[in-house]
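Example (one chain per record):
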Amino acid sequence: MRIFIICTVRGASDEYKQKLEDYVAKLEGEGHEVHLPHRDTKQDGTGWEICAQNGKAIAMAHEVHIFYNPDSQGTHFDMGMAFAYGRKLVLAEPLEPTEGKSFKNMLREWHAIYNKD
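Predicted structure:
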């Protein structure tokens, strides 16, 4: 299965990147093909080029796994593309519900819709 990881890239700490790489290593060890943006997207391009690369990878993915960061603009952009492509969403980390409408609540609902077991 092809999986795209939605996560923070710009300003990500080494500790955060290691957490992502450990998660991806587990998936790849299970035989999945994983696109991890800080590793697999050419980061020295323009913003448009980076978004286009990620968009193509999301379009080719069977599902997306998200490490949600409410402060990451790139995370929100990639979420929109994955939503538009109708990709299955997996929460890589649990998200606590909030009062009222929020991206956290929307992600929890999206995950539940595609992961009914």
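Caption: The helical segments are 14-29, 37-40, 47-60, 73-84, 103-114.
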